[in-house]
Structure formats: C-alpha cells, structure tokens
Amino acid sequence: MKQYTFSDMNRASGEILEAALIEPVTLTKRGKDKLVILTADQYRKLIGSSHTKAYDLLDAPQDVHQELMTGLDDIMGRDDA
C-alpha cells in the first residue's frame, strides 16, 4: 500500500486519488497513519466480508440463543438429550 503525507495530498491530490483507484493508499500525518483511501467497491467488499454479528442478550434471535446454549453444554460436558 502506498503512503502519502497530508502535505503530499495538498500538492498532488489528483495523482494520489488516481493511485487510490488502483490500490488503497494511506495518508500519514507526523509519521502516523491517519486515513486510508480506497474505492467504493473495495470498501463494500471489506464491510461485506464480516459475517459476525453481535446481539444484546435480550435481543438475540432464538436460534442464536440455542446455538449458544448448545455450545455451553458441550463445553461443560453436559448432555441433556
């Protein structure tokens, strides 16, 4: 991934944006990564790749509760079947 400074962005934004169309680029400030520029398709792929969901205990669907309880029973060595 190519890196540019904020100053580079001020001087050559067109070049940096063109580079971001090819691959993600990092913008740094004072030597630290601050921003990543990537295409909309790359962003959608990135956020769509996570299949993990978090639920509040009271709001979780019944199948999630059942899967959790089955897993806990397996860990505890219980077999109520």
TrEMBL record:
One Pfam family name is: PhdYeFM_antitox
Record's InterPro entries?
Answer: Antitoxin_Phd/YefM, YefM-like_sf
> Gene3D superfamilies per the record?
YefM-like domain
Family label:
Belongs to the phD/YefM antitoxin family.
What is the documented function of this protein? Antitoxin component of a type II toxin-antitoxin (TA) system.
User: What protein does this entry describe?
Assistant: Antitoxin
